[in-house]
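Deliverable D4.2, example record:
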Amino acid sequence: MTEQINSGAEQAPERGERKTRRGYVVSDKMDKTVVVQLQDNVKHALYGKVMRRSSKVKAHDEENTAGVGDLVLISETRPLSASKRWRIVEILEKAK
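Output generated by the structure prediction step:
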């Protein structure tokens, strides 16, 4: 039986692409957390009508820079709390 010696040159498997979404901040009352509403247009399977579906997610905002009405780009991340799985990448447009 021959043993192969691992020289440590093996690289870790590459991580898959993380999801990114755009949405509007609907609440910034928590510390370092904002609630972002995401909208998705879905075509009805039978009738073909395009429907708007929305969902709310909590995103991490380290500097508390995002405010209500801001358009933000969020990205998937590891679980940061019981309900927080997204983080803010950048603020695309500040609310007027």
